[in-house]
Predict the 3D structure of the following.
Amino acid sequence: MAKLRTLIIDDEAPVRNLINGIIQHYCEQAEVIATADGVNSGLAAIKKHKPDLVLLDIKLNDGTAFDLLKQLEDIKFAIIFITAYEKFAVNAFRFSAVDYIMKPIHIDELINAIRKASEKTEQQVLSQKLKNFFDNMNNKPEDKKIVLKTSESIFIVKVADIIRCEADHNYTTFFLTNGKKVLVSKTLKDYDEMLCDYFFFRTHQSHLININHIVSFEKNDGGFLRMADGSSVPVSKRKREELLELFNQI
């Protein structure tokens, strides 16, 4: 199998050298064809070398990764962002299902990211992910959208339209306001961490709910929530007091 022709764009020479070394020693599926340190040099390198994969730092010496991407009419390569951004920006990556690694770079994280990139992603899916990423960076919290990938499709869903999520081992089902159910192969824990700042509450090991879609809290039978889709969601004993305290704050 042909190796991923990889371009590294980072304004720090030590980081470029580190990534290059990791790829040479640990990533048989990739080879570094060139490096660049900024928007202009990066654009030139992309046009010249036509890479399969670009490892792209967010903050460059003459702009940002977004300045670079906005100048490309057609993105025909996979992207792994490199970031030292705070939690809000990292959530934008996670919501949009865009691959990223954090600085300082850890070998295992880079190896795993490149391995995933070698599993070819359809160009249309990448374009949808990037569009959603840019939207999430600019939108108000109530307009935030999340990418949900199933075995057959990719859905871009408004977070406000998620009523609840339910775990089934390593899968999570999303229940939406339009009645649709979306099954994705990620754990509920992943989405709990992602959505906890957007009015979502983990009521139980297997249930994550959107507080805005609660109809009532029934205290009998140990306690359960009635949701806007007509479902009943259990509340664990451990979460009961936390939920009641949350109601007092609303």
User: Anything to note?
Assistant: The chain has two domains: 4-137, 148-249.
